[in-house]
Amino acid sequence: MDTVIASEPPLLATEGIAKRFGNIRALQGVDFSVCAGQIAAIVGDNGSGKTTFIKILSGNLRPDSGTIWIQGVSHAFLTPKQSLAAGISTVYQDLSLDDYRDVAANIFLGEELTYGGLFLRKKEMTRIAGDLIRDLNIGIPDITLPVGSFSGGQRQAVAVARAVYHGKKLVIFDEPTAAMGVRESAAVLRLIRSLAQKHMAIIIICHNLHQVYEVADQVSIMRHGKILQTTSTADTPLEQLQQMIIDADEVD
Ligand SMILES: Nc1ncnc2c1ncn2[C@@H]1O[C@H](COP(=O)(O)OP(=O)(O)OP(=O)(O)O)[C@@H](O)[C@H]1O
Ligand SMILES: [Mg+2]
């Protein structure tokens, strides 16, 4: 197995993470790591366990076994609060937006800015939300409308803005560009690069290998709940990675 040489200890690492849903063995011992300033991609077939794995990192699922290390501290599982407190935020594949509320309400969901815990700082939240959406360079004509009225790509932009606002050390993107056009995808990929330049760690799950190669430093192939191989994008041409994925198929 190729090893990606890291210059500093990983911000986050896992060893032997396993998770079953009844008879389905969704994860069968996932070993993974990502360092600050690094963009780590996870690719793999539908149902290979990618979303299950990141839900464990965000504290929304508890693993059956294995260890999660955050900056050298080991955990058997994380709660959503612990994950957020560790500076981890996630753009979920299903986006997890409140369709009936506007952009600012979705970005600050559960963490609203208030005056002394009593009154909402609505204007300030709307201003911050507007700035985040503008930085993303994704057209949303009116951010005060309920997000349920938005297009798929616009909704994805709101989820990305929320994760960027809350993420302090690690931002996880589960197929962030799946519903986006070419221009919007490029804007999100640019944003991901700029986060890494600010020394944040990034995990991106993405089916589009060209997009993976545009941003990622390392790429892990997931199959049947395991990471088969992790390789550096600088050392492995895209065609070679494609071949590795096909070869992994044939091993089955
Ligand atoms: N809550 C759940 N209950 C039962 N089975 C589940 C649950 N969540 C995931 N699974 C199963 O676990 C396996 C891994 O699913 P997961 O969503 O992690 O895959 P994925 O790699 O993210 O796929 P995709 O590329 O389609 O998003 C699948 O077989 C799925 O059906
Ligand atoms: Mg998924």
Features:
4-stranded antiparallel beta sheet, binds magnesium ion, 34% helix, 6-stranded mixed beta sheet, Rossmann fold
Question: How are the elements arranged and paired?
Answer:
Layout: E1 12-21, E2 24-34, E3 39-44, H1 50-57, E4 65-70, E5 73-75, H2 80-85, E6 88-91, H3 103-107, E7 114-115, E8 119-120, H4 122-136, H5 152-166, E9 170-174, H6 182-197, E10 201-205, H7 209-215, E11 218-223, E12 226-232, H8 238-251
Parallel strand pairs: 3-10, 3-11, 6-9, 9-10
Antiparallel strand pairs: 1-2, 1-4, 4-5, 7-8, 11-12
Helix pairs in contact: 4-5
Adenosine-5'-triphosphate is lined by residues 21, 24, 26, 44, 46-52, 93.
Estimate percent helicity. Answer: 25-40%
Q: Major beta sheet, specifics?
A: 6 strands, mixed
Q: Per DSSP, what share of the residues sits in E-state strands of 2 or more residues?
A: 25-35%
Output the strand order for the largest sheet: 6-9-10-3-11-12
Describe this structure in words.
- With 252 residues, the protein is an alpha/beta fold.
- The chain has a domain at 1-87 and 170-175 and 200-252: 3-Layer(aba) Sandwich (Rossmann fold), CATH 3.40.50.300.
- The protein has helices spanning 50-57, 80-85, 103-107, 122-136, 152-166, 182-197, 209-215, 238-251, and strands at residues 12-21, 24-34, 39-44, 65-70, 73-75, 88-91, 114-115, 119-120, 170-174, 201-205, 218-223, 226-232.
- The strands form three sheets. The protein has a six-stranded mixed beta sheet with strand order 6-9-10-3-11-12, sandwiched between helices.
- The longest helix is centred in the last third of the chain and has 16 residues, at 182-197.
- It is globular.
- Magnesium ion binds next to helix 1.
